[in-house]
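SAMPLE LOG
Freezer: B-3
Tube label: C17
Construct: single chain, 154 aa
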Amino acid sequence: MKKWLLLATAALLGACCNRTTEALQTQPSKDVFAKGSPLENNPNFTGEAWLEMFVTAADSMDCTIGNVTFAPGVRNLWHAHPGGQILLCTSGKGLYQEKSGTVRELRPGDVVRIASGVVHWHGAAPDSEFTHIAIGTQVSKGPAEWFGPETDNE
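STRUCTURE (predicted):
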């Protein structure tokens, strides 16, 4: 009797856990951080974007950390970070490209490590809002340098 009860319990738990896992996999990605404030009239973005800063250069951590959300099709201009940058993709579908490189699609869970001085851009795919955590590393080396817009062909 105990063996039968143990097997039945294991089967029920397995079925329950499988349904929970399936439900989680089909749920749309939800942001856990605040969307932040609109970056109004920011010349370094091609359209509507939002920013919620978590750590600023004034925090003496030698890094900045912010949650950045791009409206569909919005991207930032070519730029480089003297101290490098890390992007932690959290929701939506994004795009990333280094100068003279190919465009890379970004999805939640992707991590982009951008070395010091690498010229690049990133933003949302045309059909999706996109959010990432942007970590500016070694910010004591200086602020981002902005170089202008990329073309659609690029």
